[in-house]
Write a structure and sequence with these properties.
- This protein is 69% helix and 0% strand.
- It is mainly α.
- The longest helix is centred in the middle third of the chain and has 16 residues.
- It is globular and about 85 Å long.
- The chain starts with 26 loop residues before the first helix and ends in a 12-residue tail after the last helix.
């Protein structure tokens, strides 16, 4: 989805950016609220804004920011009256308009929705949301013909076609036109049809057409035939049962409205501010409380925003009786770890391994946590358990071998690490991360130097702005005595990663190699200020004491003058 880079002409920023209120008595509350708002720390922002509004109840900027805080917290019922107050002032606010629209949709007052959207002075949410909401509102008001007209109109709008076709497919499925829905879901050119949720919807449509085998084949083609997660297993079990799987992706026009906001949140994710993604995911939740995908997305964005407690609260909303619980519980372990509750996170991940050990993802999640704790051998064992669940590895599994290779390499077991890296490249040839890691590791061991440099050069060709990969290339030139070339590349890496201790240390080394001794010492001092590991820091301090040449001699490494140019 995100790779499609769908261009959306959606209105305005959602964050509150406004001037300081003139009244002196607001200054303290305002500044505190603004500070919290910038950090998207929703609860303090809400509290400070409520205090500030006690002094200036009609300040539109404060009202706008308070709506954002309430929505971020998931307190929709509190956001609605604030949005109404802001609307009564005649102020233009994207989030207020979205909140009021959602409040009307929750009431399923489709006539009012259509009336509101008919008047551009009342609200304009953008060229995607407005026609989609009108379409679903027409369907709610009993006119399928007008609904399809809206979806078809959007389907003919350049750059927005995919949205109209996707929602038309959902609407056809909801009213039982499964053949029409199938024809649209089969459009491989529409990136929305490749979403997991869309694939599940298509499988339900195929089941309704008594084509369960085709549905199973589509799932196997996209997700593999082995057990992947409880949601997929539940769908497969339904497809193998005697009765058709019900079409419940969208059960009502209100569900369709939720899908409008959810799909936009998915499209935004990674390509727009996290707050924008969160607001749309929250609106989907408000419209459909059991929308597990929207809840999971909200939780993930909250985690990314540093709101781990709110993320955990969102994950906890998905009960143990729901197939999506495993995804929620796995996400919760990551949030616990970020809260520095590392023991709790690892214990929770180990519990999931015991209760859901048939699923590859739980072993990967545990391995990732153990690797972050530098328990590399234990992490490798976790990845090994994941790999053992794969009958026939294919391109989708390259990351498993790459992760285990890193764990083995960090555990100082190179004889196990190198085969994993090469297996990852066998499954995903020319994968730049693997090329870089394997190439750099070989260079570090003074092994297979020409092959290693070739790998890194191919990685740079794919990722010319990746500082880590450029650092690897420069280091390869340094190790092979190509010092002038090393300086050029290392300076590039330093510009891309100006405060990285390793890159800065390496820059000092290459400066030393070309006789720029004062600059070398300057860079080593800088590297020490960027928080290197204690082992690296001790080596840097030794270089500052006696110089790089003597350090290499102490370590039994080739002298700079002995490194032949290739």
């Amino acid at each position: 989805m995100r790779r499609a880079r769908i261009a959306l002409a959606l209105a305005g920023a959602l964050a509150a950016i406004f001037p300081v209120p003139a009244r002196a008595e607001l200054a303290g509350a305002y500044l505190a609220a603004r500070s919290a708002d910038i950090a998207t720390d929703f609860a303090p922002a809400r509290d400070y804004l409520v205090r500030a509004l006690g002094q200036d109840a009609t300040n539109p900027e404060l009202l706008d920011a308070l709506i954002t805080a309430y929505v971020g917290l998931g307190e929709f019922d509190s956001a609605v009256p604030v949005a109404r107050r802001l609307a009564s002032l005649g102020a233009q606010s994207q989030i207020a308009a979205m909140t009021l629209l959602t409040a009307t949709l929750v009431q399923e007052d489709y006539a009012q929705v259509l009336a509101d959207l008919a008047d551009p002075e009342v609200r304009i949410l953008g060229p995607v949301i407005d026609p989609l909401v009108r379409g679903w509102a027409h369907l709610g008001a009993g006119s399928m013909a007008q609904a399809l007209e809206e979806f078809d109109k959007l389907s003919k709008t350049q750059g927005l076609e995919v949205f109209g076709l996707y929602h038309k497919a959902l609407a056809l499925g909801m009213v039982g036109d499964f053949e029409g829905a199938d024809a649209l879901f089969r459009d491989a050119q529409n990136p929305l049809m490749g979403m997991r949720r869309a694939v599940f919807a298509h499988a339900q449509v195929l089941s309704q057409l008594d084509r369960d085998d085709a549905a199973l084949a589509r799932l196997d083609d996209l997700f593999g035939a082995s057990a992947t997660d409880p949601e997929l297993d539940a769908l497969r079990a339904g497809l193998r049962a005697e009765a058709p799987v019900p079409f419940d992706t969208v059960r009502s026009p209100r569900d369709g409205m939720a899908e409008v906001f959810y799909v936009l949140a998915v499209v935004f994710q990674g390509d727009a501010p996290d707050l924008q993604t969160l607001v749309h995911a929250r609106m989907a939740e408000f419209l459909r409380a059991d929308h597990a995908d929207a809840i999971l997305l909200s939780a993930a964005v909250l985690d990314a925003l540093g709101q781990e407690e709110l993320a955990i609260a969102a994950y906890d909303r998905i009960g143990t009786d729901r197939p999506a619980h495993l995804a929620a519980a796995t996400g919760k372990t990551q949030a616990l770890y970020k809260l520095d509750r590392k023991a709790d996170a690892i214990a929770a991940a180990e519990d999931l391994v015991r209760s859901h050990g048939q699923y590859l993802s739980v072993h990967v999640a545990l391995g990732d946590l153990l690797r972050r704790e530098e328990r590399y051998a234990d992490a490798a064992d976790a990845y090994s358990r994941a790999i053992s669940l794969v009958d026939a590895p294919d391109e989708r599994h390259w990351g498993l071998y790459y992760s285990r290779g890193i764990a083995w390499e960090q555990a100082k077991q190179w004889d196990k690490a190198e085969p994993d890296f090469r297996k990852a490249l066998e499954l995903r040839p020319e994968q730049p991360q693997v090329l870089n890691y394997l190439g750099y590791s070989l260079l570090d061991r003074n092994d297979k130097i020409p092959e290693a440099l070739g790998m890194i050069e191919r990685a740079v060709a794919q990722r010319p702005d990746d500082g880590y990969i450029i650092d690897s290339l420069a280091w390869g030139y340094f190790l092979t005595g190509r010092y002038d070339e090393a300086v050029i590349q290392m300076e590039r890496a330093s510009l891309l990663m100006p405060v990285d201790p390793i890159v800065t240390d390496h820059l000092g080394d290459v400066y030393w190699a070309v006789g720029r001794l004062s600059e070398a010492r300057f860079q080593w001092h800088r590297a020490l200020s960027f928080g290197p590991t204690e082992q690296d820091a001790a080596r840097i301090r030794r270089k500052l004491e006696i110089g790089l040449d003597d350090v290499l001699a102490e370590e039994g490494l080739p002298a700079l003058s002995e490194r032949g140019r290739k």
